[in-house]
Amino acid sequence: MRIILASKSPRRKELLQTLFQEFECIPSEKEEKITKKLGYKKTAMLLSTQKAGDIFSKTSGDRLVIGSDTVVVLNGKIYGKPKDKQGAFNTLKTLSGKTHVVATGICLIKEQSGVVQMESACVVSKVTFNKLTNEEINNYIESGEPMDKAGSYGCQGIGKKFVKKIDGDFFAVMGLPVNKTYELCKQLDVL
Amino acid sequence: MRIILASKSPRRKELLQTLFQEFECIPSEKEEKITKKLGYKKTAMLLSTQKAGDIFSKTSGDRLVIGSDTVVVLNGKIYGKPKDKQGAFNTLKTLSGKTHVVATGICLIKEQSGVVQMESACVVSKVTFNKLTNEEINNYIESGEPMDKAGSYGCQGIGKKFVKKIDGDFFAVMGLPVNKTYELCKQLDVL
């Protein structure tokens, strides 16, 4: 079975290697649009489904397409990737000393002998941050790590020292819910 | 300040690199003795303190020595590293489908200008496993990953696909509680 990850994220690629030795990465170029009215769980599922669906429609034959997306939520507000350093500072200042939610959508679309199946899910984790000083935030932004990440931080990089605890799936917060993906792959008989 | 990690674990070394650019690794050769009567939190703290203390006593001058150790606990029983494949199988069969506790002890001993300070803590996390088939367990054991790890699994390697969720500090389960270590280093004025 041809396996396609609908992402260019090096973190998602690294994590999917736990499940598959070989796969392709074809990033979706669909713009991520966040609809505020949808709620964060459905937003995450919708974004991952859009990614998987986009690449599924651009490919053919027997294949499994995997899309995943992550949103960071605090007090009902969804935090995406920062626009600039000031945006990253504001987000990190908001997350400082608090517990926020990370919702990770996962969508798998499989075609085999003309039969198409789809499975999707949302994995919710809670992430608690240390109280951060402005100096810690600015040093972190200068490292460049926050700039391409939802919520302006990476739980697996330099950011790990600021994360007091995670209740849920660490790998979902990192970008791909490995365990849920493994389960869904078994349901779809591709593992 | 000379920084010494009292461990040869590549995982602990990797994680400590989040906090320090340069440090030495000097593994303690003290045999790990688990006293059942102590309770798992104090056992983890004691083991980490023994490691740090061993290397502290073998070195001199201004330095910070860091020791860490992890124990896996289910129903009051402590699971260390497996003795052989059968031991790994038995442990993984026991952890299958259940939530167990991982207690990670961390101990820092610092000497500066003749003044010695020590800080230690225990970080407790809960890890929930998928229900594993015998085939999944045997394949995992054949990968070799379980053999040098407390509880016979690694949450960061192939094992990540079996871990449904972790409530607590992922990096503590992996081997070093990065966030707590960061906090204690700030308390000791070494960061």
Please write out the topology.
Two copies of one chain form a homodimer.
Chain A: E1 2-5, H1 10-16, E2 24-25, H2 40-57, E3 63-74, E4 77-79, H3 85-95, E5 99-112, E6 115-129, H4 134-142, E7 163-168, H5 170-174, H6 178-187
Parallel strand pairs in A: 1-2, 1-3
Antiparallel strand pairs in A: 3-4, 3-5, 5-6, 6-7
What does this structure look like?
Two copies of one chain form a homodimer. Chain A has 191 residues and is an alpha/beta fold. The first copy, chain A, has one domain: Alpha-Beta Complex (Maf protein), CATH 3.90.950. Chain A has six helices and seven strands; from the N terminus they run βαβαββαββαβαα. In chain A, strands 1, 2, 3, 4, 5, 6 and 7 form a seven-stranded mixed beta sheet that branches. In chain A, helix 3 (85-95) crosses helix 4. The radius of gyration of chain A is 17 Å and the shape is elongated. At the A-B interface, strand 7 and helix 6 of A face strand 7 and helix 6 of B.
